[in-house]
Design a protein that fits this description.
alpha/beta, homodimer, 14 strands, two-stranded parallel ribbon
């Protein structure tokens, strides 16, 4: 059985930042984002380079908020959706920090937070950054079709967010800080779903399995949490996940939501099943969730980063799409330090 | 400045395994590999699925040698060269272990060993696996041309190995075991090299920088090590790295070699500058190096995993190819436990 990791030193989020594109800025969470470029190009001439620049801007903002210079980073854990994760490697090269490249599809933000927390918790690192991003235009032409084709999208399709989130984790807690107290790393779950326009359904079983295992082992109940957020199942996947959990007798109630559902107004923004991409849960967490923490409105949150593990080639070869779901517990420090 | 990580509990390699294709089996290290499929297909009908199967076989072998069942793994750290790292996600889905996907190009084996060692060293994990692979045919058609085109390769080009290596790390040391005692994680180094047929030259500056920083900080000298191995710079990159280090006054002597140089006989096997790919340093280390350790012929080794951080798209867009080099120190336990 997977075990809940209980971080002995519960690393704190020293600072975080998020940057987004036009559609994300216009969405219901627009006010929570630190930076937006309405052209989606971030001053670059290709979509891929725009995504790298988006990561660079986001990490720079997080460092600035934390009063840190790049040399103070002991490591960066980063990833994105692009082939060979070039969004991160080109975007973060200039920081000069030790670099660990990750690939967890849309679960990358949570994967990075777990690995970053492990590194700090063990005591060998003092300060690390966890960064992830996605860009709608770089993802569409890589995974599906160039945008210029104007392909129709089915209602279950999600909209890859043009967004990035960066978190700086540190050893030292401070009053009011948000700490990574627990984690439950995901395992690969394959239920044979092969419709690449319905990633939500492919990831939902993994999310349900992680949440169910968490509450089976934990001394908490859903009512202890202000929010339980998957990221990113979208409307379709979130409904499937809810059903799977209810069938097992676990009702997470109104606090159960999804970063992909929160990022856009699907009715007016034509985003079909909601947001996705490594930048979706990263920006919703670094923007919306962290600002709710800072304002004292919430104290305890479960973030379940979900990823669909496939490639265009694996889909063409008829393989099923597996899902993975990494759980991270974020708890606000309310004790005097 | 990057700091050498000194693992407090120095995780041990409980067991390891490697599997290769036909060309690797025919090479100078053929006798050291645990398993070889001379068809390179590993019983599968596509090159990509063959690579996944290669990883599955390798991890299974490592588990068997260690007397472990998959449920005993607290986590798997794995990666490969394929888009979206599907070699690992399809290959390792069946093990059911918590899964962290990595992307570090040819440095993935070393990246995995560092993250696996961090996870065990910190005390939250008991037993983890680090797995990586590459397959010549899946890599060639993804990064360059389908093999059927018969494209000519320049002398500086390396040959992507059809190979995989798996290491099981555990907390408990035992007499004669090999421990991960230190690490120096790599940073991204971009010297503006853009020839994708000369990855060795693109990675050499990163390897030189990591080795130079290691010996600047360490209380060791090159003479303390039986082998100092980069993986995989090939003939061209290794010569460049040697020159860069000598120019800085650091002569590593005859003990300085490269996994890509060791894997093939370039003169008779037509592999030009030597081996590369996530499976090259993984299989050379899990096969050749670990068997030398076991036989007591060597006691202390530096492995410097090197990766070229680029994608076919980034090269077409005219971006330089950055390199990264993660150092891992492997030390044989010669004290009575």
């Amino acid at each position: 059985m997977r075990k809940i990791l209980k971080f002995k030193n519960a690393p704190s989020v020293l600072s975080c930042a998020c940057a987004v594109g036009a559609k994300e800025k216009e969405g219901p969470l627009g006010e929570y984002f630190d930076f937006a470029d309405e052209s989606d190009s971030f001053g670059k001439s290709t979509f891929e380079q725009a995504e790298s620049e988006l990561q660079r801007i986001t990490l720079n903002l997080a460092l600035k908020k934390g009063g840190l210079s790049p040399e103070m980073l002991d490591a960066v854990f980063a990833g994105d959706l692009m082939n060979q994760c070039v969004g991160s490697s080109y975007g973060l090269a200039g920081f000069g920090a030790p670099f660990f490249g990750l690939y967890g599809a849309c679960s990358t933000a949570a994967e990075g937070l777990i690995l970053g927390a492990l590194a700090v918790d063990g005591g060998l690192f003092d300060t690390v950054a966890c960064v992830s991003s996605s860009h709608n235009s770089s993802a569409e032409r890589q995974f599906r079709f160039p945008l210029e084709y104007g392909s129709q999208r089915p209602p279950t399709a999600q909209w890859t967010a043009t967004a990035s989130g960066a978190f700086i984790l540190t050893k030292k807690p401070f009053y009011g800080c948000v700490r990574i107290t627990e984690a439950l790393p995901g395992r690969i779950v394959d239920k044979g779903i092969s419709d690449q326009s319905n990633m939500g359904a492919a990831m939902a079983p993994a999310a349900a399995s992680t949440l169910y295992e968490y509450f089976s082992q934990s001394d908490t109940v859903p009512e202890n949490f202000d929010m339980i957020l998957t990221g990113d199942l979208g409307n379709e996947g979130h409904a499937v996940c809810k059903e799977l959990l209810c069938a097992k007798g676990l009702d997470l109630g109104e606090r159960f939501n999804d970063c992909g559902k929160l990022l856009y107004d699907c009715k007016t923004q034509d985003t079909h099943s909601g947001g996705s991409g490594c930048g979706c849960s990263a920006s919703v967490t670094a923007g919306y969730v962290m600002k709710l923490f800072e304002s004292g409105k919430i104290n305890d949150v479960l973030l379940v980063g979900t990823g669909a593990l496939m490639s265009p080639s694996s889909v063409l070869q008829g393989l099923g799409i597996s899902g993975i779901a990494h759980l991270v517990r974020l708890t606000r420090e309310t004790e005097g330090m």
